[in-house]
Write a structure and sequence with these properties.
340 residues; 17% strand; disordered N terminus; 14 helices; globular; alpha/beta; Rossmann fold
């Protein structure tokens, strides 16, 4: 991934310097005075992917998996509650992002796939991951397995399964981000920080939408993650749907009721995207992905390929993360610049 931060992300840095500690809240039965007499904030109960969870105190040794999840913790100022993070080393330059201080203070536990032994060695009391963002029954690493060894879990809301097999997604992508910020705000008694972040992000998105293309000017947009035989792309419930839509594009896979899924190239050709967004990560570089798209014969007459309207966004901007609002502003500018 390229070693740069987009101007929108840099502008966000100042907005994310938040102050304050945990907000005073009422108890679960609504009696604020009684809650204060019992020590204030705890116990708290939240709902995560349809499951109610109660916490008697804030977890102190959280292990996170992957960049977006890790940066949600950093955006809330919770690095002191972390035992470390697990992340491959293809997630770009982490030294110039708004949350570089969190990376400097927190231990990088492993660049390999997260597993039970890893989090046990870290003496974790909570693992923040998601389905296909670390949790995978086939690998023996799931919330149920962790519960058996006394470790709590919090699931990334973008990854919630929706009851159609292992399909994921139960809410709009940005609402998933806001839901996780608010839930974690309650769990760690930093609700004021969570609400400030949500307000900042909503304002940033609204400002980007005000400048975005509208109506008939909205181009058809396809998200290309990876894959040559069949492309991996974003459906209705993954971050790119809201990023594309709110940036002024018409997401051509909006009828795919999943988060990240594989489709056929014939579907892409039929829907004729006018812009393709490349997800930049992994062993295949963005330039290699661009060259493949430009040279793959079935795509030769697709408008985006024919007119060379291909945009690159970083992985951390496209999965659920605090970088999503900045990505909307960045893509909105790109779509305006690419408009005929």
């Amino acid at each position: 991934m390229p070693n740069f931060v987009r101007p929108a992300a840099l502008a966000l840095t100042a907005a994310l310097v938040l102050t304050g500690c945990g907000a005073e809240v009422t108890s679960q039965d609504g009696e604020g005075g009684d809650a204060e007499a019992r020590g204030g904030h705890y116990p708290v109960t939240i709902e995560n992917c349809g499951r109610k969870q109660s916490f008697d105190k804030a977890p102190q040794r959280v292990v996170t998996n992957d960049v977006g999840i890790t940066e949600i913790m950093f955006a809330l100022g919770l690095e002191d509650h972390m035992a470390g993070y697990v992340m491959p080393d293809d997630r770009g330059d982490l030294t110039s992002v708004p949350w570089k201080g969190g990376y400097q203070k927190t231990k990088w536990l492993s660049k390999k796939t997260i597993n039970k032994e890893m989090v046990l060695d870290a003496r974790a009391d909570l693992v923040f991951a998601g389905w296909n963002y670390g949790f995978n029954e086939g690998e023996g690493f799931s919330p149920a397995e962790l519960k058996r060894v006394g470790i709590d879990s919090y699931l990334l809301s973008e990854s919630c399964r929706n009851g159609r097999g292992k399909a994921r997604g139960v809410m709009a992508p940005l609402e998933a981000l806001y839901t996780d910020l608010r839930n974690l705000g309650r769990i760690f008694d930093v609700e004021d920080r969570a609400e400030a972040l949500v307000a900042t992000f909503r304002k940033q998105v609204a400002e980007a939408q005000a400048k975005a293309l509208k109506g008939a000017d909205r181009p058809r947009v396809f998200l290309y993650d990876d894959g040559q035989d069949k492309p991996l792309t974003s459906g209705l419930y993954a971050g790119p749907h809201d990023i594309i839509t709110k940036a002024g594009g018409d997401h051509v896979m909006k009828d795919l009721k999943d988060s990240w899924a594989t489709v056929g190239w014939e579907t892409v050709v039929e829907r004729d995207p006018e812009v393709i967004v490349i997800n930049d990560y992994g062993d295949t570089t963005a330039e290699q992905k661009r060259k493949f798209l430009k040279s793959y014969p079935p795509l030769a007459d697709v408008s985006a390929v024919k007119n060379d309207r291909i945009v690159v966004l970083d992985y951390a901007e496209l999965v659920e993360s605090p970088r999503n609002p900045a990505a909307i502003a960045s893509l909105a500018a790109d779509l305006r610049n690419l408009a005929p």
